[in-house]
Every structure is written in structure tokens, then in C-alpha cells.
Amino acid sequence: MPVISFATSKGGAGKTTSAIILGTELAEGTDVIVIDADPAKRLTRWSTLSQLPPRISVVTSGGERNIQDEIAQAQSKATFVLIDLEGSASRLTSFAIAESDLVIIPSGEEQQDADAAIETLAEIAMEGRARRRTIPAAILFARTSAAVKSKLEKHIHAELRKAGHVFETELHRRTAFSSLHNAGGGLRQLDPADVNGIDKAIINAQDFTSEVIDMLEGSRNAAIA
Ligand SMILES: Nc1ncnc2c1ncn2[C@@H]1O[C@H](COP(=O)(O)OP(=O)(O)OP(=O)(O)O)[C@@H](O)[C@H]1O
Ligand SMILES: [Mg+2]
């Protein structure tokens, strides 16, 4: 059962939010366990705000000594295991990356995000070398504006496309996405009276989810070939 981690050394890039979006979207159709492996426990906090959708549950990691067992146990119970990581390199982060079938690296459109994404790609490659396998990784533009890109933003996109695989879908900066941290639950549980643009946010989340599934299938086929 696939393990998908969210990693980047840039704080606030969108790891936790993107994990919540993917987790709740996948849980529309199957069982999902999200492991909160960030000592700041923001994803655990989200899970306590309201009743979670039925097919998603959250495990708060007990740290680097426990993470491997936590992943194995989650894999035996759920179809997808997602791991929200902290923003700095640690043994816990390395263990989680080593167990991952896909590492998603959220990035904004500023140079600092791009530098952190490239550094994170290098860490994943090193981890892969140590484990003698290629660990699939992809950059996800998050918190981006839906407007036409500036020259700097185009430059950042080109730089990251040269560095690694980039998701075609961007998770735009949307109130519906940031509201999840207040309301808890998934996009479908948000109240349209309180939050604008839920429908567009759901379509955006679905596009992202489909691309993740295609990517996992693509890397599985590559491994078989
Ligand atoms: N696509 C988005 N649209 C709107 N707001 C977003 C989006 N992604 C993230 N945010 C907001 O940006 C802030 C930081 O996001 P998030 O907590 O997901 O980042 P992170 O990478 O997990 O940070 P940390 O490194 O501190 O764990 C949050 O307040 C969140 O609501
Ligand atoms: Mg986080």
C-alpha cells in the first residue's frame, strides 16, 4: 500500500495543508491513514477540530524510534498512508522518506522555496542511494496565485522543472484550503455560508489527487519493466 510523504525544509510551504487535502480527497473512495510526524503536531490539531470523514484517521507519531513500525502498521490497515513531516532534516524525516513510494515537495513561487525544494530533492536522492533504490519525488506548487505568472514566477517554475518532476496541478492559494485548519474535516464538510469557492477548491483537489495516483502507477510500472 503506497506511502506518500510531504517534505521540504521550507517552513510554511504547504506540507500539512496539502497532506490534509490529499488525505481527505483519497478518503472519499478508500481508507487512508495520515501519520503526523511533525513534533509541532498541526495535523493532529486539525484532526481534533471536527469529526473526521469516515475513511480517514490520524496517527500521531511517537518519533524516530517508532516511525517505521507506525508506517508498517498503517500499511496493513489502509490503502494509502500519508506522512506529514517537519520542516527540517532529521532521522525521523530520513526514515519516513526511505519508506516512501512518493515524496511530495510543496513549494511556493519564491527563490527561498525553490532553493529548499532543490535541497530536499538532493536529500531524497541521497536517501535513495543509501537504500539502493530510486525514491520517486515530485514538486507541488502550492499557495500560488491563479493569475498570470510574473517573470520571477516563470523563472522559478523553469528552475524547478529542470531540477525534478513538477506536478502539472498547482494547489492555488484558496480560502477553502486555509479554512480547513479552522473548521477541521475535508473540503466537503466546509459550510458554503462561511467559505467561498468550495466547488473550485474541490476540483483543484481532485485534479491533484488524480495526478498523484497516476504518478504512483507510473512509478510502479517503471519498477516492473
Ligand atoms: N493552497 C493553500 N491555500 C491557502 N492557504 C494555504 C495553502 N497551503 C498552505 N496554506 C496556508 O499557509 C500556512 C502554512 O501552511 P502549512 O502549515 O500547510 O505549511 P507547512 O509546510 O506544513 O509548514 P511547517 O513547515 O510549519 O509544518 C497555513 O496557514 C495554511 O493555511
Ligand atoms: Mg506542517
From TrEMBL:
Superkingdom of the source species: Bacteria
Stated name of the protein: Chromosome partitioning protein ParA
Organism: Cereibacter changlensis JA139
InterPro entries (UniProt xref): DNA_Partitioning_ATPase, P-loop_NTPase, VirC1
Annotated Gene3D superfamilies: P-loop containing nucleotide triphosphate hydrolases
CDD domains per record: ParAB_family
